[in-house]
Design brief:
alpha+beta; three-stranded antiparallel sheet
Length: 97
């Protein structure tokens, strides 16, 4: 499964006004908001972890799918099959596959 997104690492940042951002490097803005509440900060931290989570979940799906790397017999990434297939279903959702 391949992904097409800005490669990590991404990081969470905020400015003096409490606005939350997710950045790639020092200048690349992934997303941001001008609200300074706790929920926005938590969401920004989760978004910043997305590339790392994607990589870890990809590894997990390949290692622990009961149907192996080929995914034969799994159907269409059914979440009812095995934990590896649940991981593949989440990856498919993230990539729009």
């Amino acid at each position: 499964m391949s992904a097409s997104f800005t490669p990590g690492p991404w990081r969470h940042a905020s400015n003096a006004y409490g606005c939350q951002f997710v950045q790639h490097g020092d200048t690349g803005l992934i997303c941001g908001g001008n609200n300074h509440d706790t929920l926005q900060e938590v969401n920004a931290r989760l978004i910043a972890a997305a590339p790392d989570l994607y990589g870890a979940l990809s590894y997990y799906a390949e290692q622990f799918c009961e149907f192996g790397a080929s995914n034969e017999g799994c159907g269409k990434f059914s979440e009812d099959v095995c934990s590896g297939c649940k991981a593949r279903a989440a990856l498919a959702k993230a990539t729009g596959a």
